[in-house]
Amino acid sequence: MNITRAEVEQVARLARLALDDAELDALTGEMDAILAHVEQLNEVDTAGIVPMAHAIPLENAFRPDEVRPSLGSEKALANAPLPQDDCFGVPKVIE
Amino acid sequence: MKLTDLTIHQMQQQLADGTTTAVALTEAFLAQIDATNEQLNTYITVCRDEALAAARAADEQRANGVVRPLTGIPLALKDIFVTTGVRTTCASKILGDFISPYDGTAVARLKEQGAVILGKLNMDEFAMGSSNENSAFGPVRNPWDNACVPGGSSGGSAACVAAAQAAGALGTDTGGSIRQPASHCGVVGLKPTYGRVSRYGVIAYASSLDQVGPLTRDVRDCAIMLGAVAGYDPADSTSVDTPVPDYLATLADGVAGKKIGLPQEYFIDGVDAEVKQAVDAAVAQYRELGAEIVDISLPHTKYALACYYVVATAEASSNLARYDGVRYGARVDEGGGLIEMYNRTRAAGFGAEVKRRIMLGTYALSSGYYDAYYLKAQKVRALIRQDFTAAFEQVDCILTPVAPTAAFKLGDKTADPLQMYLSDIFTLSANLAGICGLSMPCGINRQGLPIGVQLLGRAFGEAELLQTAYAFEQATDWHRQRPAVAKG
Fold first, then answer.
1. Strands B116-121 vs B43-46: parallel, antiparallel or unpaired
2. What's the rounded mean pLDDT across residues B244-252?
3. Which residues contact B452 (CB under 8 A, 6 or more apart)?
4. Does residue B376 carry a catalytic annotation?
5. Domain contains A58
6. Which of A50, A59, B122, B435 is the most exposed place for a label (fewest CB within 10 A)?
7. Residue of B nearest to A92 (CA)
8. pLDDT tens string B10-57
9. Is B177 an active-site residue?
10. How many domains does chain A have?
11. Residue A58: its chain B contacts at CB < 8 A?
């Protein structure tokens, strides 16, 4: 086994996904099979290889620090499920 | 010849000499969409009024002497490109009725060029899939055989162009999502070099792999569309500030004396016999056109799939963290507080494949596994790129099959995720290496399904790649084959 059902439940908590029992069962088997395939990577000798994070060499991209028009709260809130007082409404966090 | 049969370059000609108008072209495509969309399910949203208004504006511009390469040309967009005034779904329930406050750069460039946007195309949810069966809006049918998938994730884009529902389309390619459906639908599809086209306003799946590209009827159209969208964009810090060549200027220069490499790792058991035969015939054609065929090796090819599924899912788990039901999209709140709202919203909004990839990626990045999976995959990725760097010291272009088989039947691979992932084994490496790749038609099998051949080129070598493809296309007739549904 590459991954246990308990680990899958923990990953679902980290990923903020409320999965039901059937989904957790199915994912345990599927993730196990995929991770077994991924194990192949261990055959490759990567000693001294610099990890490649990006396809092209990237440098910090700077732009002039100029004041520019921004979206504005009306547009920013246009798609909000619960706009409240010019803010994004969310369930109560602090009692 | 029907208006919907024309290529973009033929439309340019007819618009210029007054044989047709943007309004006439747009009406013809809207009629074809009306007649065939129920059957194919390619369009998620048809922008009828907006398209006709844009067509009228294009005709007016032309009357006033303002003519750009895409003035009045009816095109369509994978529903991953955000657009003002028209909803963007990414084929997911979680975006609800999201309407973007801005146009992405590629879309803005098409509009500036006078293109008419017909609508937003079906896809695998968040571009995760190889068959277009992972859409919250239902699967797309292959125009050549409705029992078959169109490929994915840009399945709607490929099927729409094959079925003459648009002159061309934009898609995105993270592991083959332009090239594989192009192959399955018998059209031309190009994944440009990473950094060639801005990703600003393209909903992110795996940010170090995603790239925007065109799907068209032929190679010349592909060159026209790439020229329209390519180029540096300050809004995308990964777009590269290097000049965009005139892709049409060198298109017809031929392949005499060019070296084309055949990587032995791509000509393996498991490739369908008819696919192999068609690709071999393409190699023979290139030899006849004066190219030199060279055997090469890309030794880390067998690790590309494992490498891809670690890198892509890790990036996806991070990118898709933003869908939390707070600022936009659907929200599921059944009480229980903020975290419970996140958990329920994401569980209800994402489909099975998206959840699977978020889970894999979260696992690969989680404490204790990061070095074993993510870091290891990044090192293997460096080796895969080195393979290509070494190969391009020997050859100008690499030729391979696009996919191991022609289009498969709906439902054939949905039960086994790993089997589905294997449909991308020949296309993933180009994304990992960041180089450009193109798929074009090179045959039709006994079931009447198209077969594609893939050409891979050096980073920022699109001009040479298109030139190599064009030489084959001009010598063959495969790009002129159309499914019955396109003929009406």
1. antiparallel
2. 98
3. B179, B182, B183, B184, B186, B401, B402, B403, B439, B440, B441, B442
4. no
5. no
6. A59
7. B337
8. 999 999 999 999 999 999 999 999 999 999 999 999 999 999 999 999
9. yes
10. 1
11. 237-238
- Counting every residue, how long is chain B? 488
Q: Is there a contact between B306 and A8 if contact means CB atoms under 8 Å apart?
A: no
pLDDT computed for residue A95 by the predictor: 67
Which chain A residues are closer than 8 Å to B421 by Cβ?
A: 34
| CA–CA dist B396, A53 (Å, integer) | 26
Nearest CA in chain A to B318: A15
The closest CB to that of A80, out of B234, B328, B417, belongs to B328
Chain A residues closer than 8 Å to B240 by CB: 56
- Is the pLDDT reported for residue A57 higher than 80? no
DSSP state of B19: S
Verify whether the Cβ–Cβ distance A41 to B237 is below 8 Å. Answer: no
CB contact under 8 A, A34 and B418: yes
Q: Does domain B3-253+438-487 have CATH number 3.90.1300.10?
A: yes
User: What ipTM describes this predicted complex?
Assistant: 0.95
Check CB contact of A70 with chain B, cutoff 8 Å.
Answer: no
* B101-126 pLDDT tens trace: 999 999 999 999 999 999 999 999 99
Give the tens place of pLDDT for each residue, B290-342.
Answer: 999 999 999 999 999 999 999 999 999 999 999 999 999 999 999 899 999 99
Q: Is residue A25 part of a domain?
A: yes
Three-class DSSP category at B454: strand
The CATH number that applies at residue A29 is 1.10.20
pLDDT band, residue B69 (cuts 50/70/90): very high
From B194's Cα to the closest Cα of chain A, the distance in A is 7
Answer whether B145's CB lies under 8 Å from B447's CB.
Answer: yes
Q: CA of A45: which chain B residue's CA is closest? A: B380
Would residue A60 count as lying in a domain?
Answer: no
Active-site residue, B207 included? no
**Parent domain of A35:** 5-41
DSSP codes of every residue in B118-137: EEEE--SGGG--SSS-S-TT
Using CA atoms, how far residue B92 sits from A37, B140, B358, in Å, is 28, 15, 14
Q: Which of A15, A31, A78 sits opposite B101 (nearest CB)?
A: A78
d(CA B460, CA B195): 9
A47 belongs to a structural domain: no
Closest chain B residue to the Cα of A46, Cα to Cα: B379
CB contact under 8 A, A55 and B194: yes
Which of A56, A79, A91 has the CB atom closest to B337's CB atom?
A91
pTM: 0.97
